[in-house]
Specification:
The protein is mainly beta and 353 residues long. The protein contains one helix and 28 strands. The chain has a single domain, classed as 6 Propeller (Neuraminidase). Strand 15 and strand 16 form a beta hairpin. It is globular.
Length: 353
Amino acid sequence: MHSFRIAPALLPLMALMTACGVRTSDDGAGAGSPLPIGMADGFSASSVLTGLNNPSGISFSAKGELTVCDSGNGQVILFVDGKPTNHITGFPTEYWKVNAEAGTKAFGLGPLSAVWLGDTLAVTNAGAKDGEETVQFYGAAGAASDADQTNAVGPTTEEDADKGEGNLTGMCAAGDDTLFVCGQGFDGKSWLLRATRSTKELVPFASADDAGVAVNSPMQSMMWDEDTVLVLYSGAGGKEDGTLVAWNTESGALEASYSLPGVKDPMGMDRIPGTDDLAVVDNNWSLTEVLPGSLLRVSLPEGDSDQCKVESITDELRGPVSCAFGPDGRLYIAQLGAEFDSDQGQVLAVAGF
């Protein structure tokens, strides 16, 4: 993990890029040669950023600045004038998978989601232990420890395996003061949580289990309209049970649940500009290797149907985990790359929507 801080105003740009441990494409804007990853007609992909370690959440500031969680390196990267800088550094990291008998560890995780509330950046401190994680707020570049933060959320059941909410991910902003947060604490009780910046409160909001939705692992939330937050659930690893669930933003009541036929482990989504369709990335999760993943176009069902229409744009991604449309109309995708726990993580940009 990169443990030192950098003052962007004091160091040359090349020093910043070296410290980040990442590289942009040749022109710094991701418009280089198209990548040969089997895109559908009319679509093309190019590399924006490489050299990341288990990258996760991806978003844009109000100024249109690309923001990426370089999770395994315990930092958030912000593009300034088209170049990557270490924006917030020094987040704790932990290994998600630990084999006690073999003594092996895998999937190093730190911050998993970072979104903007005006000029304030909210980040999930997902490298802490379950029951100790918080949402942290930053008004400027600096160290992770400089944050204002919410409370953590402890166990919500009597089960011994329930240690509290953890691996907080998939945030979305609802106005300038509220965030919805996907919790990955205890599979027996899946939670969408709500964070409030002004009060620094983090509370359980909507439970799939309580609502009779038999799918866990909420991965990404997204405001659909002012009354509805849409949440993407990945379900059990390797099982085709990806699900979209709509929750009322005031009451937390279930509004609708939609299946995603053929989708195994969806982890990221964003609304396609000017449409009611979604771009969804399917990680195709494995505990031992990075498998080919997919980029999909998803249409919500009409009438009484509960089954979405799913169209493939490519099935040759490498562990996609998050996506967001940029101000240029392209879809930016964070993916693990050929190997996890390495420097092969990437951000791609897909044009053609």
